[in-house]
Write a structure and sequence with these properties.
seven-stranded mixed β-sheet; alpha/beta; 7 strands
């Protein structure tokens, strides 16, 4: 029999759970294959429309430029769309490529970034949970939930690049709770990143479930309220808290 979610110690007499907020990347779908495909499609597009860039750069070297640019301004850690747009603009400018091509390049990348394969448990588990709980999402990425087909499951969806703050800032968690009209203490956040998702949510006064789909190791000093390997385990844990 498949073991259930691992429950870990939590504060005494917790508030009843009214809402569940979800991270997206590596929680509801695997992000690495999405980014590999999106960056590959963009590079093929560049080969046709900006050959001077492709002659000077590989996919890896373009990624290195973005990582270097991210260190120059804290805003780039919040707005990943702006980071990519600025990095692409800079490299186009260096190689005398028409800057008017940046927006169509970003449109192609953004569409591919929102072409994801949901984990098999996601939609059935969300349907089960939304019968008795309010659901939402909080993400540092810029996936299009309308395109993906998940927007209808969530009462609120907050993306860092639009909100202006990113996880683990308590403000982004609190904004989602306020939008759903639930207290942080009555809200559970579910995500794969121990620091941004688990520690960030707990410091904002929410309970936090670590979604460990890939058998990763939990860093020392971080104690989620539960550990789950999929959303079916999460559903069972939530029922046990009722």
């Amino acid at each position: 029999m498949k073991p259930s979610a691992t429950s870990l110690p939590s504060s005494p007499a917790p508030s009843p759970i009214e809402a569940v907020l979800f991270d997206l990347d590596d929680t509801l779908w695997a992000i690495e294959p999405v980014l590999v495909r999106a960056e590959g499609l963009l590079y093929d597009w560049l080969r046709e429309h900006a050959p001077a860039v492709v002659a000077a750069h590989t996919i890896a070297s373009l990624r290195e430029r973005r990582m270097a640019l991210m260190k120059t301004d804290p805003m780039y850690r919040i707005d990943l769309w702006k980071l990519r747009h600025t990095a692409l603009s800079d490299v186009f400018r260096e190689h005398d490529v028409d800057l008017a091509l940046v927006d169509p390049a970003m449109a192609l990348f953004s569409e591919a970034r929102s072409t994801v394969a949901l984990f098999d448990d996601v939609e059935p588990a969300l349907l089960r949970m939304k019968d008795r709980l309010t659901l939402g999402s909080v993400s540092n990425g810029f996936a299009d939930l309308e395109r993906i087909g998940l927007a209808g499951h969530f009462g609120v969806s907050i993306a860092a690049h639009r909100f202006g703050r990113a996880k683990p800032d308590p403000a982004i968690f609190h904004a989602a709770c306020e939008a759903l009209q639930v207290a942080p203490a009555a809200t559970v956040y579910v995500g794969d990143d121990p620091l941004l998702d688990v520690q960030g949510a707990q410091r904002a006064g929410l309970r936090a479930v670590w979604m460990n789909r890939f058998e990763r190791t939990l860093p020392e000093g971080i104690t989620p309220d539960a550990i789950c390997r999929d959303l079916h385990e999460l559903h069972d844990w939530l029922q046990a808290q009722a």
